[in-house]
Give the backbone structure.
Amino acid sequence: MALCPDPDEDKWFKLFIGAVSKTTKESNVWATENVRLRTIGDSELIGWDEPLYAGTMRRLCRPKMTAAQAVLAGIYVLTIAEESSNYVGGDTSVAVIRENGIWMESQDYVRSMEKRLHDYERQINDVFLACANTEVSPEQLGEKLSQFAREALSLHKAHLDRVVRDMVASGLNTQNSPYPKIPPGTVLNVSPQGVTAAYDSADKQAIVKSQVDAAKQVLRGVREQLTAPGEPKPDSTD
């Protein structure tokens, strides 16, 4: 190749190219192989392409997975590559290409997702081995699964709460993301003690009830202040 005069004959290279149309809102990602351009499949790797990484990606990726799941799958493969190769390292960059633009995830969020995957992987591996181990009785396996469920739910709730805190700290009116970071319909409660979030129906109803009760209490106080001495107080609207 004229642009690569080095005597080494191996001048093969590969790149990813992504584009979004502002007019039609269409988006796609292509792979280049020297001078050829082709559409990529469900998943594809470039760089240090080892069978271990390609196999892991194939196991994790599937049709119609969400953008958040695809990001986590990609990050997980890169964490395996960093742990198993001296040629892979440094900060992980994540780009999301879809109809609403091309987005770069913040390094802080990527690092938090890397830690999140490590937290779950340790617990899942323990359960995986216990399920296949015939030395473990059904009762023992049931206890381990119950323990895993409690710990996984606790971890998941802690991760959600951290994302909410980060979103509030950076300003909810400035949030701009290519995919949801928290469950749709999450209810936030702001109080002098801080911000709490409810993700499930029962918790949402409890927060809404507490907010309604607080509003009623404030309204009663205002009415009492506005009522002139000696005049009957207006009926409560409770």
The longest helix spans residues 138-170. The chain has five helices and seven strands.
